[in-house]
Design a protein that fits this description.
The chain has 443 residues and is of the alpha/beta class. It has helices spanning 9-24, 29-34, 41-53, 55-65, 72-85, 95-107, 116-128, 130-137, 141-145, 149-158, 163-170, 187-196, 238-243, 266-274, 286-299, 343-346, 349-366, 389-398, and strands at residues 177-180, 201-204, 208-211, 228-230, 256-260, 278-283, 304-307, 322-328, 370-380, 402-404, 409-411, 433-440. The chain folds into 3 domains: 9-145, N-utilizing Substance Protein B Homolog, Chain A; 177-230, Sun protein, domain 3 (Alpha-Beta Plaits), CATH 3.30.70.1170; 235-440, Rossmann fold. The longest helix is centred in the C-terminal third of the chain and has 18 residues, at 349-366.
């Protein structure tokens, strides 16, 4: 962020507080940011994402400063400023600047103008008593880890040795990771093209590059022409896992592959970049299904794209079995909260069980569509065992024709500082995922 930005910081803080207020009312940050004027959006997104990563601490600090919860817009502005200013070593602006501009934002918003003096008093006290106030909130788990209490407790049960590392990784800023379209360029060639314009990158997996610094995608060479896509290193494991060792179709034609729940199309595209396949990609949301087509068009790829409910194959299936199915099932997204920091505050504990039911139903409905000798790759971007390991244990117990092939299982989210979980990934930097590759015994 640039303190010399021509857009006043108070305007960005106003917009960031409005987005935070919307998230608290149940809206996603993505949809709320879409309503922010285009000239403000990049700066506001950076502020909002940082505020959401430290919201637990900010709310605890606000309770120290004002025991009674202020009106929603006032509280959102206070918590935004506190979240951005409390860590002085990585605050996007000097704390005094943030406080001054937050007060200015309060004065210039009709919804908060009458409380501008209150905002000023709270934030000036925060500056005076910073160390004591932070120390007073250190023992609160939600403030310390910046996740809901139920989330912290579930991770303790699911990952008793790793829960602290997972929570710490969730609060880091992820890198920009690319997947090189091997039909257009090699990883080595594309890395050289990046180096030529001063962008360092290192390889990850078979098709990926992790950039040393994030840049807007329009600055990436050949991006508009489909030479590369943005995709996390863990998500790039899906296509190689599903395709490695996949037998050729018995009829001599291209293997038939179903990508269920496929939007926005990244994994569909990766499958087609790696092999000549007959792919059907479906998504229940027509607007999101349209995005699949747009993704493939940019990359010069094609598939049968349908807006359909994967759990109701009678409405879309032609009766011919698939050689392989990729089921990227709906989930809590608990493995990708560093990229979507609003998720942790939007989810409720009851969502885990409800989504597990949906996942189990999709597995039960799609498994009969796999040809004997074929395979199904089940994956979720979740670190909760109910959506991964426990789901697979139940499925295998009820489907004796299913055999678990070599699979990574649960991948913890990793920042560059705390892990090297993926092969050929020197940064150890990737999202949290679960993968299970299932083989169907021939009849």
């Amino acid at each position: 962020m640039n303190a010399e930005s021509p857009i006043p910081l108070w305007r960005q803080l106003q917009a960031a507080a409005s987005v935070l207020a919307a998230v608290r009312e149940g809206a996603s940050a993505t949809s709320s940011l879409a309503a922010v004027p285009g000239d403000l959006r990049p700066g506001v997104q950076a502020l909002v994402f940082q505020a959401l990563r430290w919201l637990g601490r900010a709310e605890a600090l606000r309770r120290q400063l004002a025991r009674r919860t202020p009106a929603p817009q006032v509280d959102a502005l206070l918590c935004t400023a506190l979240a951005l200013a409390w860590r002085t070593d990585d605050a996007p602006y000097e704390p005094f600047t943030l406080v001054n501009q937050a007060v200015e934002a309060a004065k210039r918003n009709p919804a908060t103008r009458m409380q501008a003096a209150f905002v000023n008093a709270c934030l000036r006290r925060f500056l005076r008593e910073h160390d004591a106030l932070v120390a007073a909130t250190d023992d609160e788990p939600v403030a310390h880890w910046n996740h809901p209490r139920w989330w912290i407790e579930r991770l303790k049960r699911d990952h008793p040795r790793d829960w602290e590392d997972i929570l710490a990784a969730d609060n880091t800023q992820p890198p920009l990771t690319l997947r090189v379209n091997r039909r257009r360029a090699s990883v080595a060639d594309y890395r050289a093209r990046l180096a030529a314009i001063g962008i360092g990158a290192h390889p990850v997996g078979e098709d990926g590059l992790v950039l040393e610094r994030a840049v807007p995608v329009h600055q990436l060479p050949g991006f508009a022409e489909g030479h590369a896509s943005v995709q996390d290193a863990a998500a790039q494991m899906a296509a190689p896992l599903l395709l490695q060792g996949l037998p050729e179709a018995a009829d001599g034609l291209r293997p038939r592959v179903l990508d269920a729940c496929a939007a926005p199309g990244g994994k569909t595209a990766h499958l087609l970049e790696r092999a000549d396949l007959d792919v059907t990609a479906i998504d229940i949301d027509p607007a999101r299904a349209t995005r699949i087509g747009q993704t493939l068009a940019r990359l010069g790829l094609s598939a049968h794209v349908l807006a359909a409910d994967a759990s109701r194959p009678a409405q879309w299936w032609d009766g011919r079995p698939f050689d392989a199915i990729l089921l990227d099932a709906p989930c809590t997204a608990s493995g990708i909260v560093r990229r979507h920091p609003d998720v942790r505050w939007l989810r409720r504990e009851s969502d885990v069980a409800q989504l597990a039911i949906i996942q189990a139903n999709l597995l039960a409905v799609l498994w009969p569509l796999v040809a004997p000798g074929g395979r199904l790759l089940y994956c979720t971007c979740s670190v909760f065992r109910a959506e991964g390991e426990a789901q697979m244990q139940t499925f295998l117990a009820h489907n004796k024709d299913a055999v678990m092939l070599r699979s990574p299982g649960h991948l913890k989210p990793q920042s560059g500082a705390n892990g090297h979980a993926l092969p050929d990934n020197p940064s150890g930097d990737h999202d949290g995922f679960f993968y299970a590759l299932l083989h169907k015994r021939p009849a």
